[in-house]
Each structure stands twice: as C-alpha cells, then as structure tokens.
Write a structure and sequence with these properties.
Layout lengths: L11 E4 L13 H10 L5 H12 L9 H12 L3 H5 L8 H6 L4 E6 L7 H10 L3 E6 L6 H4 L1 H13 L2
Parallel strand pairs: 1-2, 2-3
Helix pairs in contact: 1-2, 2-3
Length: 160
Amino acid sequence: MKNYPDIKIDGFISIAGFVNANFKPNITIEEFGKITMTLIDDNFSTVVYGINGTINFRTFKPMSDEFRAFKIGEAALIAPEYRKSNFKSIDLADFFSTLSIPTLNIIGEKDALVPLEYNLYFANLAKNGEKIIYKNIGHSPPWEDTKSTTSDIARFASNI
C-alpha cells in the first residue's frame, strides 16, 4: 500500500496486530531471545526445537495436533538464509494513521506475542477503523475461533 499508492484498496484487515520497530512481545526478552536464537542454528533438529518453542506462544487455548503440525511444517520450509538474515523493523504507525479506508483489527485478548495494549494502539490509529477483541484467544484467532473470525471478516467485507 505504501509502495503503490495508486492501487485501489477498498479495505484492510489486520489479524493479531503488527510487528513494528518498537515491538515488545508479552514474553520476556530472555525467553524470546532464547527461542529465536535456535531458529538460526545450523543444526536442523535445533531449528525444529526452536520452531516448536515459538509455536507454543501462538495460541491461548490448547493447540490442536493439526495446527501444531501445520505451523512446524510451514516454518521448517523457511530457507536457512532467510532465518539467519537480519531484517530491519520499520515504524508503521505514521503510515497506518494516514489510512482512511475501512479497517478491521481482529485482536486476541490473550496474545502472548503481540500485547493487547500494543494491538489497541494500532487499532486506534485507524481513521475509519473497527476493532474486535476476542476473549480468551491468543495470537491465532482464525485457528482458535474459526467461526467468529470467518463471520467477522465476511461481515466486514460485505460492508465495503
């Protein structure tokens, strides 16, 4: 959206918030660092252990075996070069606050990765924004409450 300002976009949906330049997860920096360091190891079994560790923070409700297998498989396919690359976080707040298109923010109240306060900060920047906070849901609303997420997205999309 920022790189192609002439493209027509009718609406924007954010699920589980933004990772931004000043992002701080709900878990301690030590926990987060210990887990993420395993993701750049050259030993694949260490990487899978790290992937499994990060997945534990994805949901508030117990995770199904299917979802765990899906996320481990998805993450394991990431090229080692990408996992080891240093990417620069950017500040999205200024850009997001300029959006006037309808915006839906779906937020998990119990998100261990993106704190509720952080999600609310971004949701409140939207000029034409709506926010829905799912009680007792973590970082993966589509998996933890598929029916509500699908219904809310369909309702939002049908109104734009």
